[in-house]
Design goal:
Oligomer: single chain
Shape: globular
CATH class: Alpha Beta
Largest sheet: 7 strands, mixed
Helix content: 40-55%
Strand order of the largest sheet: 3-2-1-4-5-7-6
CATH superfamily: Vaccinia Virus protein VP39
Structural class: alpha/beta
Length: 255
């Protein structure tokens, strides 16, 4: 279960990669702009502001996120990105921090590149930090005897199958696109008690929250907190620095 409020607790930090991504999309007057994995709609609204004449299509698998987006005036629909297919007038597809949850996303990307109209844009970014200390700590804890049987199905014991920029560039170039791919590591300044725990609670730990009852969820967080604090110590000024690596791809189908 996705919690829109928890996700938005770090909305400024999470939004920066989105704007860096969309800035590389050069579409001027797209007919239809699609946000796959729209979340609570705060960033979808930015797409509507940039391309006010376009038909805006927003999709998310979480009913809670869709409800939050609708409260913002976004006509979001509940659906799985795996089942989505572009309509004939789709000129821009944006997917922000979603495809890492989709094991078959490489096949999806190649399919979209074939199905989209000439000159259409595909823009997505995924985390490239699955070997970061935070993720290693989560996998270590999830693999302990107390948790392993319940959390192995949540997919936390293995890193996500994302590619590096060269991998996505090769994939989409082979599909006939012109590709711009890169990576960036942001250094996020976090504050408060257990800030990295709160950060991962809004995203990475969502599958854990889904399968654990409230007392076990509280206990898992209690055990994880010191592991994260050791990996990301607080500085004397009270801040905690979190490296945040992202992989970006912007591709355009042949004109």
């Amino acid at each position: 279960m996705w919690d829109p409020q928890q996700y938005l607790a770090f909305d400024d930090h999470r939004a920066r990669p989105f704007f860096d991504l969309v800035a590389r999309v050069r579409a001027e007057t797209p007919r239809r702009v699609v946000d796959l994995g729209c979340g609570p709609g705060n960033l979808t609204a930015a797409l509507a502001q940039r391309w006010p004449e376009a038909t805006l299509e927003a999709l998310d698998s979480s009913p809670e996120m869709v409800a939050a987006a609708r409260e913002r005036g976004i006509d979001a629909k509940t659906g799985d990105v795996v089942d989505w297919r572009p309509s004939a007038d789709t000129d821009v597809v944006v997917s922000n921090a979603v495809l890492q949850w989709v094991p078959e996303h490489r096949e999806l990307l190649a399919g979209w590149a074939r199905e989209l109209p000439a000159g259409a844009w595909i823009a997505f970014q995924v985390p490239g930090n699955f070997d970061a200390p935070s993720h290693r700590a989560i996998r270590e804890l999830a693999g302990r005897e107390q948790w392993q049987d319940r959390l192995a199905p949540a997919g936390l014991l293995e890193p996500r199958a994302v590619l590096d920029p060269e991998g996505y560039a090769a994939l989409l170039t082979t599909a006939g696109c012109t590709v711009d791919a890169w990576e960036t590591t942001y250094l996020q300044r976090l504050e408060g008690e257990d800030p990295v725990l709160e950060w991962v609670t809004g995203t990475t730990l969502t599958p854990v929250r889904t399968v654990l009852e409230d007392p076990d969820w509280a206990e898992f967080r209690r055990q994880l907190a010191p592991l994260l604090s050791a990996a990301y110590p607080r500085h004397p000024d009270g801040s905690t620095w979190l490296p945040f690596r992202r992989v970006f791809t912007v591709a355009r189908t042949a004109c």
